[in-house]
Each structure stands twice: as C-alpha cells, then as structure tokens.
Amino acid sequence: MRRTIAYARVSTRDQNPQLQLDALAEDGYDVLVQEKISSRLRGDRPEFAAALASLRPGDTLKFWKSDRWGRSAAHVLTVVTELRERGVKVVSLAENFDLDTKEDRFMFAVLAAAAEYELVAHGAARRAPG
Q1: Known catalytic residues?
Q2: Are 60 and 36 in contact (CB under 8 A)?
C-alpha cells in the first residue's frame, strides 16, 4: 500500500508550524511527522530519520519547503537523489516541483542553494558588529 508521509519542522520554540501544517493537511497525507529542532545542529533529527527509514518504493515524502528539512543544498540534493533511487516520490508544496523531471530537479537545486546562501548570509549579518 502506497503512503504519503508529510514532514513539518520549525527551528525554534517561537516559530509556529501552522502554515506548514495547514498546507500539508489541505494537500493530504497518510502520516504526519513533525519536529521542533534546528537544522544547524549536527545531530540527527530523529523524527525525520525515522520517516526516511520507513519510506518504501511507491511512497511519497511531502513537505512544505525544502528548507524545512535540509541542512544544506548538498544535503537536500543527496536525500532527494537517494529517495528517488529507492522509488520514493518527493513533493515540495511551496516550490511546486515535479522532481521526476531533470528541469525541475535543476530548479530545485538552485533554490536549495539560494536558501542555504540566505541562511548563511543572515547568520553572518547577525554576528557582524554593529
């Protein structure tokens, strides 16, 4: 039986996941996995890791935006490639990509890299003496 597993994550206790949860619920899923943990942490995100391990060929991993589960552009692309090789469909609601096409995989890679750059640039700006 094919399943759709939805993943939602916020980084801090102050962030509200409701926008993600509403979008995922509207689109539909069988299982929801949710975490409150920073992607900057080097440790694993246990709920995400368990969701990845449970995916079988024909299943779908659905998320609101790629920056909700990727540590970096390279990490996002590695996981997407591994999932596709396992026969798992990957769906991004906000970015609206069909990762079964090479054009959309390219655009996904560009946006993942841009999100990573924004995260790094934002962090550097906060640390700069002002």
Answers
A1: 11
A2: no
